[in-house]
Write a structure and sequence with these properties.
binds potassium ion, binds ligand NAX, ten-stranded mixed β-sheet, about 500 residues, ATP-binding, alpha/beta, about 15% strand, Rossmann fold, binds adenosine-5'-diphosphate, UDP-N-acetylmuramoyl-L-alanine:D-glutamate ligase, nucleotide-binding, about 40% helix, EC 5.1.99.6, seven-stranded parallel β-sheet, 2 domains, EC 4.2.1.136
Length: about 500
């Protein structure tokens, strides 16, 4: 699913009106019908609905919703802010329609706003500004936002919380943005919804499909997409009857150190549950027995060192290598990692300590071969690119890094984003907060290494790997709940996740 900018959303509306023979006022009616349904589904008539409408089409939506709720016998009150004396045509039409159905609780605010008392039982509908916002809110509008935010009422924002920009909020004024409990987004989701710092502004969000022109969406250029199951399923290549283990690649995981053998176990088990033909684990001598016992399906190659990875492995017999889980950052390990990466000519995944080593020895970043997959969480990424003050800046800088290294970056978190060297950002929708637990990332490294070994392209391995990892996390959550979920549960759920993605 594409994510469009607010400017594109306006163009999409205009295109739909021009090419799908629908009048603008009727598109608004469709939006208002869906908004009203979503509100009625959540709250009954015992709640007073207090509607704040702005001068544009976001306000038009809100006034249309007021009429529909009134006709369903809800108790509704409308405050329309008309401070410049200029209202959009569709907003005016809806005000007229509201009056025509005998509605009397309508207040037009031109200068002085006598704010109603809001209680915890009231529902506020925020229709001040939507995708037409062109600068941060200030003055009277900022005061209304602060008053809404200070109230105990539940807040439903139409399209976006008023004051929030759809993409970049680096220069916005946070306290002048509505804090919604629910955002009902019209057409498509906005990029800003996927950023953790906006969670308390956007609340829970839902997309309402008002029938925006598919033709426009297909042709719209965007760098931001949300991966869907329908994008993932066709990527998976079925096994054929005469297949043998040699067809599915030999993967190598260079993982583990003294006291972090568990990371090696987790990544190896996940790799084996994701279809790799053969797996070897290169690990310090101290982990030999642990791995032979816990992962009998894998071969173990001992490093020369008792406790740490110290000497690069020979890569001739492998189709993919994953480096970094539980490696530690000893000086001897750092040198071995850099040398291993510099000379690597097969598909490569770098995680955890391998990334930390490159952030310490930054001069060696250029040794990372083209098309390598880097799987940092925010902390690991920022050790490389420097501290960022918000998600938009972080993603922009990550795109620059992906471009300069010609690598793939899997920036992990809720809404993990796969960034391609060309700067496309694929957001992953699966996964849950139960996965915020040590070892979850090691599982992902194992999965992606398995996919690379089987011959999936880097982009496919990143998208498919993050999707199935999150899906397994969701299956695990259903079994054990978010609090008890541990990394091993994700591995145990992988068979079900793979099965569900391959069944007809
Ligand atoms: N027919 C359509 O085009 C449809 C539009 N829809 C709704 O229309 C919205 C977009 O409507 P508009 O383009 O009219 O935009 P808005 O309603 O978001 O706001 C537009 C007005 O706000 C002013 N403005 C912008 N930033 C301001 C600021 N910081 N302080 C004070 N005033 C400011 C603009 O000058 C303009 O007058 C969407 O978010 C959606 O809710 C939906 O009804 C779907 C159909
Ligand atoms: N709130 C969340 N929602 C969805 N996925 C999450 C969430 N928190 C963590 N995850 C996933 O769990 C994994 C954690 O990886 P990482 O931070 O590297 O952990 P570790 O280093 O302990 O293995 C990532 O794939 C991340 O996307
Ligand atoms: K709004």
């Amino acid at each position: 699913m594409k994510i469009l900018t607010c400017t594109q959303q306006k163009e999409a509306d205009e295109y739909t009106i021009a090419h799908n023979s629908i009048l603008s006022i009727n598109l608004m009616e469709k939006a208002a019908t869906l908004l009203t349904d979503a509100i009625c589904k959540r709250w009954d008539k015992s709640h007073r609905i207090v509607i704040f409408a702005g001068p544009g089409n976001n306000g038009g939506d809100a006034v249309a919703v007021a009429r529909m709720l009134h006709l369903k016998s809800y108790q509704v009150e409308v405050f329309l802010f008309n401070v410049t004396g200029k209202l959009s045509d569709d907003c005016l039409t809806n005000i007229r329609r509201l009056h025509e159905c005998g509605f009397t609780s309508y207040h037009e605010v031109t200068s002085q706003f006598d704010a109603p008392k809001l209680t915890a039982h009231d529902i506020v509908i925020d229709g001040l500004f939507g995708s037409g916002l062109n600068k941060p809110l200030s003055g009277g509008f900022a005061a209304v936002v602060k008053y809404i935010n200070a109230s105990a009422a539940k807040v439903v924002s139409i399209d976006v919380p008023s004051g929030l920009m759809g993409e970049d909020n680096s220069y916005n004024i946070r306290q002048n943005i509505v804090q919604a409990d629910i955002t009902l987004s019209i057409g498509l989701p906005k990029l800003a919804f996927l950023f953790p710092e906006n969670e308390e502004l956007v609340g829970e969000w839902e997309v309402l499909d008002i029938g925006i022109s598919q033709e426009y969406i297909e042709n719209a250029e965007t760098r931001y997409l949300i991966t869907e199951e329908k994008d993932i399923r066709p990527l998976i290549t079925p096994r054929h009857k005469f297949a043998h283990k040699g067809n599915y690649g030999h993967g190598l995981l260079i993982t583990g150190s003294y006291g972090m053998g568990g990371a090696a176990v987790l990544s190896a088990r996940a790799c084996l549950r994701s279809g790799v033909g053969l797996l070897t684990i290169h690990t310090p001598v101290c982990n030999h027995t642990l791995l032979q016992t816990c992962v009998p399906e894998a071969m173990v190659e001992d490093d020369v060192h008792e406790r740490f990875f110290a000497e690069p492995a020979e890569l001739d017999n492998y189709q993919a290598v994953g480096i970094g889980c539980g490696l530690g950052q000893e000086e001897i390990t750092a040198q071995a990692v850099i040398e291993q990466v510099r000379d690597c000519e097969i598909p490569l995944v770098l995680d955890a300590d391998a990334l930390n080593i490159f952030s310490t020895y930054r001069n060696n970043l250029s040794y990372i071969p083209k098309n390598t997959i880097l799987t940092p969480h925010i902390g690991e990424l920022e050790r490389i690119i420097g501290r960022c003050s918000n998600s938009y800046e972080r993603i922009s800088k990550a795109k620059d890094l992906a471009n300069s290294l010609q690598c793939y970056i899997v920036l992990k978190g809720a809404w993990t984003v796969v960034i391609t060297p060309e700067g496309l950002c694929h957001f992953n929708p699966t996964g849950n907060p139960g996965m915020a637990t040590g070892g979850s990332g090691d599982v992902l490294t194992g999965i992606i290494t398995a996919l690379l070994a089987q011959g999936y392209s880097e982009e496919e391995a990143c998208k498919l790997g993050t999707y199935v990892h999150g899906l397994a996390g969701d299956i695990a959550r259903n079994k054990v709940g978010e609090i008890s979920l541990k990394a091993g549960d994700i591995i145990e759920a992988l068979p079900e996740a793979w099965k569900s993605l391959t069944k007809n």
